[in-house]
Design a protein that fits this description.
By secondary structure, the protein is mostly helical. It is 45% helix and 8% strand. It has a three-stranded mixed beta sheet with strand order 3-4-5, covered by helices on one side. The protein has a two-stranded parallel sheet with strand order 1-2. Helix 7 packs antiparallel against helix 8. The longest helix is centred in the C-terminal third of the chain and has 24 residues, at 279-302.
């Protein structure tokens, strides 16, 4: 059984009470307070402990005759290879992301082991039986890329380029140059999305950015923004050791080092939208576009009629300056989290798909 969250708790209870003789559980996450309203195998005393290990402890009491093995790990880790999958009669998916689902689907097809795939979206649920040569597989039908993403993923544990694009567009751009998008449609801020603490932290960070915003127009404005989002916030995440036991710890960027590396980068690099920029090139585009946009905003403020609402900028994929800012910021964040960066043309396409 892959996943010990909302579906996994219910599923493990059913497997144990049905009388399955041996069950392996694998999950890389730890228990959070927000899990307790539905993941009934866990209690307050289990917060910060491994979901897989606690699920084993609790479910074993339902039927002591069942042998349960728990793995606090990532299903994509090398030890869970083809030979490991072939050791099972059936595999159950109880996952919450497309990437892991697709991985398990491929492994079960290669091992010729039946897979029961399940998932939820809001109040809707789905179950699919996957058997090689008998039924269609998980990837046989088109899966639309989600257009909303949990705040905890966007803020703390991005794993895909789109997570960094949403962060740059709906959080960083909005807080620095636009209107705060607490209700941005790409951010899932529902109470049951395991986001409560992350939403509060995101708001705290937004308030800090608003204070930095007051220094717009000064020489060290780009440094202050860079230091906040690419150094201070990342150092805080790196200090959460449990979060990185089974994930790659984010790297730190250095403003002065990148400034030195970017000396040879010309402004023409921003026009090469189908080339994946280096870290120094992304830094150069980030600083240039931030200055251009802050100058534009200053000019709007200077021409603002007395009594009118303070002017703000809005992201537009066809506005080269706003696109440069979002693309370079998204790529810098991707590089920090070990995610492959994208060319600006691809980022433009993905930011457009978010608006459909």
């Amino acid at each position: 059984m892959v996943g010990a969250g909302g579906i996994g708790c219910e599923l493990l209870k059913n497997l144990v009470l049905t009388g399955f003789g041996e069950v392996d559980i694998i999950d890389l996450d730890t228990i959070d307070l927000s899990n307790l309203n539905r993941q009934f195998l866990f209690g307050h005393e289990h917060i910060k402990r491994s979901k897989a290990l606690v699920a084993k402890e609790t479910a074993s009491r339902f039927n002591p005759r069942v042998k349960i093995e728990a793995h606090h790990a990532n299903i994509k880790d090398p030890q869970f290879g083809l030979k490991w999958f072939k050791g099972f009669d059936i595999v159950f998916n109880a996952l919450d992301n497309l990437d892991a689902r697709r991985h398990v689907n491929k492994m079960c097809l290669a091992a010729d082991v039946p897979l029961i795939e399940s998932g939820t979206t809001g109040f809707n649920g789905q179950v699919q039986v996957i058997k090689k040569g008998v039924s269609e597989c998980y990837d046989c039908s088109f899966k639309e890329t989600p257009k909303t993403f949990p705040v905890c993923t966007i803020r703390s544990t991005p794993s895909l380029p789109i997570h960094c694009i949403v962060w740059a567009k709906s959080y960083l751009f909005a807080e620095i140059l636009g209107t705060s998008e607490d209700d941005a449609p790409e951010l899932d801020t529902t109470e049951d999305s395991e986001n409560a603490k992350e939403i509060e932290k995101l708001r705290e960070e937004a308030h800090a950015l608003k204070r930095i915003r007051e220094s717009m127009g000064t020489e060290d404005f780009p440094l202050q923004v860079f230091q906040k989002v690419f150094v201070d916030d990342i150092e805080r995440l790196r200090s959460m050791e449990d979060m990185w036991k089974h994930r790659q710890k984010p790297a730190l960027l250095n403003f002065d080092e990148l400034k030195q590396q970017a000396l040879g980068v010309g402004e023409a690099i921003a026009d090469k939208d189908q080339v994946i920029w280096t870290v120094a090139e992304n830094f150069a585009v980030f600083c240039t576009s931030l200055k251009t946009l802050s100058d534009r905003l200053d000019e709007l403020r200077a021409n603002n009629s007395l009594g009118n609402a303070a002017p703000v900028l809005s992201f537009d994929k066809d506005d080269k300056d706003t696109l440069d800012f979002v693309a370079s910021a998204a790529n810098l964040r991707s590089m920090i989290f070990g995610i492959d960066p994208k060319c600006e043309f691809e980022i433009k396409r993905e930011s457009w798909s978010l608006e459909l």
